[in-house]
Design a protein that fits this description.
Layout: E1 4-7, E2 25-30, H1 45-54, E3 59-61, E4 67-69, E5 72-78, E6 83-88, H2 102-112, H3 122-125, E7 128-135, E8 138-143, H4 150-153, H5 162-173, E9 183-189, E10 193-198, E11 211-216, H6 220-229, E12 234-236, H7 240-247, E13 252-258, E14 262-267, H8 277-286, H9 289-297, E15 302-304, H10 318-322, H11 329-338, E16 345-351, H12 355-369, E17 373-379, H13 382-390, E18 396-401, H14 412-415, H15 419-423, H16 437-446, H17 452-469, E19 473-486, E20 489-490, E21 493-494, E22 500-501, E23 510-511
Parallel strand pairs: 2-11, 2-12, 16-17, 16-18
Antiparallel strand pairs: 1-5, 3-4, 5-6, 6-8, 7-8, 9-10, 10-11, 12-19, 13-19, 14-18, 14-19, 15-19, 20-23, 21-22
Helix pairs in contact: 8-11, 9-12, 16-17
Length: about 525
């Protein structure tokens, strides 16, 4: 038997922040409502911000984005990189009192890999060849092929109570989750608020907050006003003008951190005119993205993106950035004529309803009108939009992505071909339906390697092919995670994955009197 490489990082519970105050309900204004609270089926930021307060994952990040244990106390990886053996934490209980065991982990990963669930995790979990419980506190998971990014990919996969999930069914669990996390689900009034209460028996530490209320406020200016008048305690992703005003408010603190998040204009690479690379490149040339991003954010809250790799990320490549086409509407018109569209064409762009992305869609609409591409903007709820993109029915759309630190998650995940999922209109991260065998091979090879220095040139070459050669997607911006909060909120932490951490190994949010 091959020797196992043991990975163990001590969880320093004793290092958790000292409580400044016990009690109080934190009121948070979010950008949009969650689509679901079921961590098995859902993997978008608006949802995970909330359901990861209710659930825990096997592993998580520390404040520096190093991967550390959570429900798994330790794990071992076989020398061939395919088999992971997780030793689970003993004594953890779900909110309904049921013990957390290996059976819950097996259930969660098995369901996530089942096409019948239409899970947003399907693309990640189809690589699982086998998973089994060796005993109540040990799980062995085997991949079809080595994937150096696998541990990074499961950091936001919350483990639900298998008993509750079976009894409630997917739809029922999505609105009444039962996890092991720091807060318990109480209620969800759609288009109003979602309420959580403290889990007094949380295995990590007792949360300082008595509860949390989340309110979806798509209009960022409204969220800023709510914060000023005391209607909420925390507001996220604010407009530049509001940030400037709030910075001078004596009772409010404004914080920000650069993130790895990536927002983009997606194009269905297999639908109508957009199937022609010349048309996609014409759209690249037609968009004055520096001006567009500055118009939306005013220099606060985001920077222009050129590819899916944010500055500071491992696979960021200045040489690729330099080769992304600049604004040139005349060249756009030439390419459209070459592609057989001298008079342009009509299309539709979908966008979530939050103000930033809706404004991005409208600015894209205005810019493309100048090269005779007539765009209809359809602003819909995220839960309505995603199935349309999975089904391949959306020509263009605005969306965002953030997924850990590994470059695999910003390349293979988003752009590796998934023809079986496309044929079945199943969930896939490659909703652009981009297909290039050369890029596929580069990305597939890169994630089987364990040496990051060997992996990075392959990812960089793939990103060049995707964004420069094939114009598969239009990179728009990387968002700075900015939030503002009332000064009585203590120990809040912003991480580079665009999440707001409330109770972790390094912080425990509280409210002072």
């Amino acid at each position: 038997m091959k020797a196992l490489r043991t990975i163990f990082v001590a969880l320093l519970v004793a290092g958790a922040s000292v409580a400044l105050a016990q009690g109080g309900v934190l009121r948070v204004g979010t950008v949009s409502e969650p689509t679901s609270l079921d961590p098995i089926t859902t993997n978008n930021v608006p949802s995970s911000i909330i359901f990861m307060q209710v659930h825990d994952a096997l592993v998580t990040y520390d404040q520096d984005l190093n991967i550390v244990p959570m429900l798994a106390e330790s794990w071992e990886v076989s020398e061939d990189g395919r088999t992971y053996t997780f030793a689970l934490r003993d004594g953890v209980r779900f909110h309904d009192g049921e013990p957390f065991t290996a059976a819950d982990v097996v259930y969660a990963f098995t369901a996530g890999a089942d096409p019948a669930y239409q899970s947003q995790w399907l693309g990640r979990f189809q690589q699982i060849e086998a998973i089994e419980a060796l005993d109540d506190l040990t799980v062995r998971l085997t991949l079809e092929a080595p994937n150096a990014a696998f541990i990074d990919q499961i950091t936001y996969f919350g483990i639900p109570s298998s008993k509750a999930h079976r009894e409630l069914g997917g739809d029922g669990y999505a609105i009444a989750p039962v996890g092991t996390g720091p807060f318990k689900f109480v209620s969800w009034q759609r288009n109003d608020k979602l309420v959580l209460e403290r889990n007094d028996d949380y295995w990590l530490t007792r949360p300082n907050l008595a509860g949390v209320e989340f309110r979806a406020i798509p209009e960022r200016s409204v969220a800023a006003v709510e914060l000023e008048v005391g209607g909420i305690d925390v507001a996220m992703s604010l407009n530049a003008d509001d940030v400037t005003r709030l910075e001078s408010h004596p009772d409010i603190t404004v914080g920000s951190t650069p993130t790895l998040s990536y927002y983009y204009v997606a194009m269905n690479n297999q639908l109508g005119p957009l199937a022609d690379v010349r048309v996609r490149k014409a759209i690249q040339y037609a968009l004055p993205l520096d001006q567009i991003v500055d118009t939306i954010f005013g220099g606060v809250g985001a920077i222009r993106a050129y590819t899916s790799m944010a500055p500071g990320s491992l696979a960021y490549d200045e040489s690729v950035v330099a080769d992304i086409p600049g604004y040139d509407p005349q060249r756009a018109l030439q390419l459209l004529a070459e592609a057989g569209y001298p008079n342009g064409f009509s299309t539709t762009i979908y966008t979530p309803t939050d103000s930033n992305r809706r404004q991005l869609a409208e600015l894209v609409q205005a810019a493309l009108a100048l090269v005779n591409i007539k765009v209809e903007v359809r602003a819909v709820e995220l839960g309505t939009m995603l199935p349309i993109t999975y089904a391949g029915e959306a020509p263009m759309w605005i969306l965002g992505w953030t997924s850990g630190t590994d470059p695999n998650n910003y390349s293979y995940e988003m752009f590796h071909s998934t023809p079986e999922a496309w044929a079945e209109n199943a969930t896939t991260y490659n909703t652009s339906r981009y297909h290039n065998p050369e890029a596929d091979e580069l990305m597939a090879t890169a994630r089987t390697l364990t040496d990051m220095e060997e992996r990075l040139p392959l990812y960089r070459q793939a990103i060049r092919t995707i964004f420069v050669d094939d114009a598969a997607q239009i990179a728009a911006y990387h968002q700075t995670f900015n939030i503002a909060y009332r000064n009585h909120v203590q120990d809040i932490f912003l991480n580079r994955n665009s999440r707001m951490d409330l109770v972790t190994i390094y912080n425990n949010v509280s409210l002072t009197n």
